[in-house]
Amino acid sequence: MPHYLITGASSGIGAALATALLRRGDSVTALARRKDRLDLLAAGKGRLHPASCDVTDAGATAAAIDEATGALGPVDCAILNAGMYEPQDTTKIDPAAYARHMDVNYMGVVNALPRLIDGMLARGTGQIAIVSSVAGWRGLPKAAAYGPTKAALISLAESMTFDLAPRGIDVKVICPGFVKTESTAVNDYDMPGLISADTAAIEIIRGLRSNQFVIQFPKHFTRKMGLLRWLPDRTFFRTVGARTGFPQP
């Protein structure tokens, strides 16, 4: 049975993915900081290996992956999902907040890659799925710290593909719209197309089996977001500003 490693697995999309994959009979390593949440997730589930780890610590992340490999065998698919989101007002920039986003959202992925890639290269097979967001497609209100990390992850996944695809490693990037999680609970505005974490998990699992590089959902929302990338700048700012309560002159 395949061995899936999921970061950020203590809640939200990560926890929903772990539950759905275990229900199918797969083996899962659930990696997250909050050990109490992982223990609850693992209760009564024999094929789930909980690994308490902070992804911003490269050494601890590598050790957790080694531990997972020892417990459940080589990682067949890594879903690098750990992330954070804090809305930002760019009239009052706190550089520390931007650094935290980069440490968790971007470096949290990078820190997991060396061990994962080494193992997959040795076997000539494997899959790495990086959770980004439609917020990485264009700048959005309140996302000045979050959005750039997600844009960086898209670029990272694209660059990795050139090196890894010829060596049997499939790289995918996951770009959800709004998903009901602890992170989106802080938003004080309407979130069109909002879906549950369980629905997001189903979409991701389906996408992992596809030949698509980008896994995006829900389609009725991400298609509209995709169109924003092609709008002239002035039209983009006015359209998004009007819909989000940030009207532009």
Can you walk through the features of this model?
The chain has 249 residues and is of the alpha/beta class. It has a single domain, classed as Rossmann fold (3-Layer(aba) Sandwich), CATH 3.40.50. Helix content is 47%, strand content 17%. The protein contains 9 helices and 9 strands. The strands form 2 sheets. The protein has a 7-stranded parallel beta sheet, with helices on both faces. The mean pLDDT is 93.
Taking the sheet with the most strands, its summary is:
7 strands, parallel
- What characteristic shape results from the CA principal axes? globular
SS strand fraction: 15-25%
CATH class: Alpha Beta
Distance between the termini: 57 Å
What level of helicity do the residues show? 40-55%
Order of helices and strands: EHEHEHEHHEHEEEHEHH
In DSSP terms (H or I, runs of 4 or more residues), the helix count works out at: 9
Question: Total domains, how many?
Answer: 1
Q: What is the CATH fold-level name?
A: Rossmann fold
Topology (SSEs and partners):
Elements: E1 3-7, H1 12-24, E2 27-32, H2 35-42, E3 48-52, H3 58-72, E4 77-80, H4 95-110, H5 113-123, E5 126-131, H6 146-164, E6 169-176, E7 179-180, E8 195-196, H7 197-208, E9 214-217, H8 219-228, H9 233-244
Parallel strand pairs: 1-2, 1-4, 2-3, 4-5, 5-6, 6-9, 7-8
Which features characterize this protein?
249 residues; alpha/beta; two-stranded parallel ribbon; 9 helices; 9 strands
